[in-house]
Every structure is written in C-alpha cells, then in structure tokens.
Amino acid sequence: MRRGIAFLAAAYVILSVASAARTEPGTGSELHDERSAGDATVPVQSRSAFTQHVPGLSAEQLSRFALGDHVFRTPWVEAPASVQAFDGLGPFYSARSCSGCHMRDGRGHPPDGPDDVSRSMVVKLGVPDSSGRRRPDARYGSHLSERAVRGLTPEGRLVVRWEDVEHVYADGEKATLRRPRIEIAAPDYGALSHDVRISARIAPAVIGGGLLESVPDSALMALADSGDADGDGVSGRVHWLEATKPGAAPARRRGRFGWKASQPSLAAQVATALADDIGITTPARRELDLTRVQRAARSKPRGGEPELEGATLAALIEYCRLVAVPARRNVDDAVVRRGAERFRDAGCTGCHVATLPTGDDSVRAMARQLIHPYSDLLLHDMGPGLSDGMPEGNAQASEWRTAPLWGLGRSVVVSGYLYLLHDGRARTFEEAILWHDGEARRSRDAFEKLPADSRSDLLRFLESL
Amino acid sequence: MRLAWLALSLAVSVVPCSLATAAPSGAASEPVATALREHAQLALGSYREAVAGLHDLQAAVGELLARPSKPSLEKARAAWISCRDAYGRTEALRFSGGPIDDLHPITGVQGPEGRINPWPIDEAYLDYVAGEPTSGLISDRRVPMAESTLVSRNAADDETQVTLGYHAIEFLLWGQDRSREGPGARPYTDYASGDPVRDRRRACLKLQVELLIRDLTYVADEWTPGPDRYVNTFLALPPADALGRALSGPATLAAFELASERIGIPLSTGMQEHEQSCFSDNTHRDIAADVDGIVRVLAGDSTHAGLLAALDTASAQEIRERLARIRHLAHAITPPFDAILSSDEFDPRRRGLQALMGELLGLSGAIQRAGEAAGARVMIGGGG
Prior knowledge:
Strand content of chain B: under 5%
Radius of gyration of chain B: 21 Å
Oligomer: heterodimer
Order of helices and strands of chain A: HEHEEEEEEEEHHEEHHHEHEEEEHHHH
Helix content of chain A: 25-40%
Largest sheet of chain B: none
Number of strands of chain A: 16
CATH architecture of chain B: Up-down Bundle
Structural class of chain B: mainly alpha
Number of strands of chain B: 0
Number of domains of chain A: 1
Strand content of chain A: 5-15%
Shape of chain A: globular
Structural class of chain A: alpha+beta
CATH class of chain B: Mainly Alpha
Number of domains of chain B: 1
Largest sheet of chain A: 4 strands, antiparallel
Order of helices and strands of chain B: HHHHHHHHHHHHH
C-alpha cells in the first residue's frame, strides 16, 4: 500500500513538472500553481511585490513603464503652478496622486472610526429614480470629495462608524464581524437628497491589469450563466455597459474593471479615477463631476484642456497594464494544498475561477497565458448584507464583481494591512467569507460547516495567494 | 534557473517544478563560487564604507548643531556629499533579494531601503517651503519630534511623504532649490537654538542621521558572516541562483533606476523636481557614484574579483568595454543637472545623457544574456 502511495506521489510530481509551463484547468494542479500569472509572474515578495513590471520588456516598453510609474506616483498640484506638467489638481479631490490611494500599487483602507480621516476610500453618491436607476445627487453629483484646493471648502466629510455583528458557527464558535454606518458630515452645498445612497469603496490593488484586460470576451461569456441554467445557485453575468457617447452608434461593451465591473478597459478605468478621484481631465473625460450649484469650483483655473493626454497619459495606462503579479508562496505545503481543495470543494471556485486564459498580446510574457486571478470578472448577487443600496449601470445594488484574489496574501507586506470587500469592512479572510451571501450562500454554508482545522487550512490557502 | 528569491525569501519547501524552467545549477565551477564569496566581501566593504561616511556626517551635524554658522553648515553639506557618494556605490547591491530592500530570508523583516533613500520628496510635508512658512511636520508642534514620529510619518499615506533618509537630510541642509544655477540656500540660522520650531528642526536632523546609521549598520551586519545572517543564506544558495540575484542588482539599477527613472524621466519631462538630489544639485555625482558601484560589483576592485569572473570570457570582455564607455559618460556630466533639463535637443550635455541612457540599457541586456549563458536568471525589476 505504501508503495502505491509513493508511486502516486511520484506520478504527481512528474505530472506537475509537465504542467509547470501550462497548468491544465480542471486537473487540480491549477490550485497549486505558484505562477499566478503564468510567464507574467514575478518572484519579488517584499514591499515592492506589487510594483514590478511583467518580465521581458523591451527597452522602449521599460521606459514607458518607468514614465507611467512616475506619473502614478507624482502628486498633482493646483493650477496655475510653476510645475506645468502636473498642475490641475481638483478643484475637488480624494487624493493628489494615484499612489495616494494605491500606495505601492496596493489596496486602500477605510477609516478606523468616526474621527479618522478617510485616505484611500472614495465616496459614490446615487439617487434612485422611478425606474430604479441611479441618478447623480442634484447638488453633489455622483461623487463626493473630501478634499478641495485652496479657497474652496471640501464637499463634505465621510464619517464611518463601525457596528459589531456577531456570527456563530455551526460548531458554536463565534466571530465578531463589523459593518459600517456611513454619513456625510459638513455637507458644503446643503443637504444631500433625502433618498441619496452612499457607497464608500476602498482602492483595489493595481496588479495584473493587463492580463485581466487580455482575457477574451468569449472566455467570460462562457463562464456567464445569468439564468443559472446549471442550477448550482451561482448565476454570474456580464455587466453590459451602454455606450454613452452622444452621437455614437449604440454599442454595448462588457465591463470588467472596478468593484461593479463598470469600466470596460484599463483606459476607461484610469480616466474615471483621474477625473473622479484627483480631478484631472483627459480626452475620455473632459468634464469633472461638478454640479450647477458648485459655481466657485467651476470657476477655478484648470491645468489644461484636458489636463492629461498624449504620451504621458498613454504611459500611465501602459503602466497599469504592465504591472506584474507576485508568485504564490508555500504552494507545496500540505496545509495549503488541503486548503486549496477545501476552497474548491466548497464551491468557491464557481465564481473565484482559478484559471482564465489570456489572448494575444504584444508583450510576450502576457500573451496566451493561463492565469490564476481567482475571479470570473462577472457580477454576482452577494445578498442584502453587502448591498450598498445603489445600482450602478446595469449592476444591481447587491451585485458585485468577483474580486480577484491574487496577491491578497502579500497585502500585509506591501501595505501593512489587509481590508477586504468593497468598503473594507472585513479585517480577515474569514470575515470576508462570512459576509458572502446571495449566490455565494451555498459556499459560505459549506465553509461554515467545515471543521475548524479545515477552515483554517482554507484560510492558509488564501494567504498563499 | 528557478526564481530563487522566492524559495529563499520564505525558507520553505517550494514545489520543485513550479517556477523552475530548467535547473543546470549543479556542480558549480570553482570560479563562480569564488566570485560569489568575493562579491559578498565586496558588499560588506561597500556598506561599511557607507556607514563610515555617515559617522563623518554625524560629527559634522553635531558641530553644526553645537555652533550653527555658515562654515559649520558648509561642512555638514560637504560631509553629506561625501557620504552620499559612498552610499551611491552600494546601490548596485539593491534589487537582488538582499537585506537592503528585500525580506530577510529568516526573520522575514523588510529591508530598510524605504527609510534610507526615499524619493521624490514633498518638501512641505517635512518643513517650510516658499509661500508656506509654517508647513510640515517640523512646524507642527502638536506632534512630538521623536524617532517614532519620523518612522510612522514616513510614507504614511503617500510615498512622497518623506521624513527620513538621505534626501530628507539633504533638504534639511540645503532647503528648496529655487534656482537653475545653484543649489538650495537654507540659512544656517535655521539651526539656531532657542526657538521651538528651530529646536524641532535640530532634533529632527539629529534623529534622521542616527536612524540612517542604524539602518545601514543593519545592512552591513547582514553581510557579515554569522548565524542567521543574510550572507550565509546567500552563499548557501545554488551558485547559479546566487549569481542570478547578484547580477540582477546592477542590471536593474542600470536599466530601470538610472536609465529610466533618474535620467530618462527628468530629461523627458524637463522638471527640476524630478532630479534625484535636487536640493544640493548633486545629481550628477549621484549618477557617477551609482555607475562606479555598478563597475565595482561587476569588475571588482583592487582586492575583490567582480561578478565578471563568474562569466565566460567573451561576455566579460563585452561588458568590460561597455562599462568603460558608461564610466566615461557618467563622469562627463556637467553640473548642474537641472540646467541640462531645460536645454534644447541639440545641447551636447543632453546628447551625452541620452548616450549614457542607451549604454546603460545596453549593459543591462548584456548582463542578462551573459547570466543566461551561465545558467543564471537575471531579473530586471521595476524598482522599489
């Protein structure tokens, strides 16, 4: 018998050697693949783990990456300034640079409590209309900024109060979760609409953007199951975006970036973040989120028409495309391997899909790879507990894009903390899992029913990502 | 040829297949092992030299604080420039999984580079700037001026929030550089005691130098043989992996840090703020010192063989020729660097920098090819 096991183990090693370059989805080996992003994986595990570029860039690509990196980190200043290249901050803004929220390309964090200042969190506003769609607030628009240029008062201040929520496992073990209560203090243009919905969201990590962008639409379509035809309780759907360009032929694009998959491309994601979070206009977003009552803000000097364009903007987008993903750790650890199997057996990989293919790409390390983002980039109903009350495009209030899990195990090293879910309420992987509901209910139940040591194995697997 | 840093960083077993492509790292030839041992000694010597320079700076800063005057400020500035050269020559040891900027293989502690050389700086975060006489941590008397403050406020929410390291000290010694012709012109009276804010500035400068010494001493210690020291782990690696790491340092410094970040971006944006040592106008020397460090790591010095000794003769010869050209170009940069940034495209100084960029990128490619030929994987990192 023992010989049989040894033989099997040897066969496994040979199999996994054979699959080192290309893991085969469905064989199980994908769950133990150290190379989260195929050839675009980098070995760096330090606090710089998220700021590396994919391997094998040409000199020209490298210099574009470096320029993009620089733009990402350079703080914008108010216009007019002696620093011509980077002026035009605000008038309202959440941060002065991209890295102001995504420090070292990592995640953001919510305020600790009502007296803490929010730094890497943005506030979206929405007022549902009669058809259930989201409209901007009449006075504040669809975005509320907590900072403003000199001579202007910020639109308001985000106040977060945390409420404890007790959770009891099947085996009697208890966990204390927390839920935010969000208000806007000191609204500068008078009261917000009485039925305004406020969604506060932390900044996600920036890694692997180009790989996610390169996953063919057909692959996402193949994963989508909006009517839950296969009856597994999970019905991922593509976030179809309506083209909003006036005069353009109606077109629908698939969303894949952002907490609600509301952005179809990295270029769109970058333009949106620049405009809404830093107050920087680009050719794709020439108008900022300023309402008619915000007259003083509208008359503030601008840093150009638009403020960022051409090669510099292209370098920033290219930077977001080329940021690599760090390799996993401890993939050979028996605990981690068991945890990966528990993760799969609980059905988590139904949405946190282990393997996606990338398409053709001018960067060889990114082309035709099998990557392991642990996401299907689709929208799923996560239940009322996670709803932010605000539909966004065609995504419902309780629908969220499956968050990619790759790199999460490095967050503490890169950023010094780990906060999960859109508003950063979860302080641990366990808390994040326990908030899962809706389509993820079955998987959460499966997790809860696991014995404590199996739950712990599963968490160890997540830490290895 | 596995991505060895990972295996080493975590000191755990790694799936034998996963990151490996092929593993011709076995029977290391004696020249490779010797070159790696000498590399480790050279690294130790380089960091010791940097620490010694800092002790000189500490003495000069002590003198400035004891007797603030124009000459004592000038002496402190001269000591900064001198110790900066010594640190610059260690930068080719970054980006190679070492104790300066990576996780310690045994303790898991993050290397102190983020406290040593953070840049660029939002000056107003630390001290007064033109038009904002009360800005910065130094003016903010609600916060105690203590080491813990400087550490916790460094890059608290943004990487430009710099409170520590060479460039923060440089800013405190020179002040903002408001001219194209000369460096910053902070008056020595900023260090006269007896005023609460000036006393905070005095305390700040003293603490910054102390912490910098401690951090670089830690790095030097890790290159000193001993149990649990990084150097022991390094020398116990399969030689091809150790060689790959060591070569990744100069390759990344040349291609990413120097050619792209520190020369390419200032040249293409023309912004003075984008030059490294903008307060002291010392950027030309920073570049030359970095290049000297690259030359030393690859070609060795009078007592240690460089990494070229581990490479085949033809590759070593090619790299040697490239190093000679790079050295010449780097030492020919005419200061001040910020004047070159505003020059036109035909300016010979700009042309010289562009040629240097090209050579640095070429060097990095040559190191990568030579490493490959020796079975070592050279990573061009994205900086830190």
